[in-house]
Amino acid sequence: MARKKAARTATGDIIVDSRSYGTHTRKPRGTYKAVEINDAFKASAANLVKANNAAALLKREIDQFRHDFGGGLLWQRMLSVFRGYSKNNQAPNLQGFRRFEIHKDYPLSRLITANHKNTFIENGFIKVTLELSTPRFKRKFVDGYRIGLIAFFADFEEKKTASTAEWTPVIPLNSPIAGVEFTLPVPEGFKEYLLCLKLKAADGQTICDNVSITGM
């Protein structure tokens, strides 16, 4: 037997005949009332979109240098940094990535200690001198390593990034090293940059693609 349709008022409310409460009306189930969104909520949502876009923009640039070093919750941790700017009503920038590890489980700091001795920009180039400890690899076959310095450039207002990099030749583990100098070209039209150090182990002259003996 077909279910009888509930009677309705002229405004669409349902008429209910209840033994407990008598005859009364109620709103139809599954209906929603329009909610007003205030300006603060709109601004917060817009900032969140900016944070997500900035994180995606920078990650695409970084990913070019970590095809052998994936994972490590990079995306989630980058989002956390950029969303922190959003919560504080700050524009996206690179300042929150100082001492930032690219891989959560395989940090660079477990393998090597690196300190900036000197960094300056001259005639369109970034010139960097680093003081480095001898890498602490725990694999017997590793007898050398390479150090790469990557400069990431960003202009989040213009939604653009760029990068340049320089690598050392393979350095023997038994060769003492006091410091390493890098010279990286600076592309035009960028407001800020971030320096990133990458370490790769070597077996002879063969570079090892193994996350456990890589840091960035």
What structural class should be given to the helix and strand makeup? alpha+beta
Strand content: 25-35%
Number of strands: 11
Query: Taking Cα atoms only, what radius of gyration do you get, to the nearest Å?
Result: 29 Å
Mean pLDDT: 88
The residue fraction in helices comes out at: 10-25%
- Total discrete domains: 1
Distance between the termini: 71 Å
Order of helical and strand elements:
EEHHEEEEEEEEE
Question: How does the overall form come out from the CA principal axes?
Answer: elongated
Summarize the main sheet: 6 strands, antiparallel
Low-confidence stretches: none
Please tally the helical runs, counting DSSP H or I stretches of 4 or more residues.
2
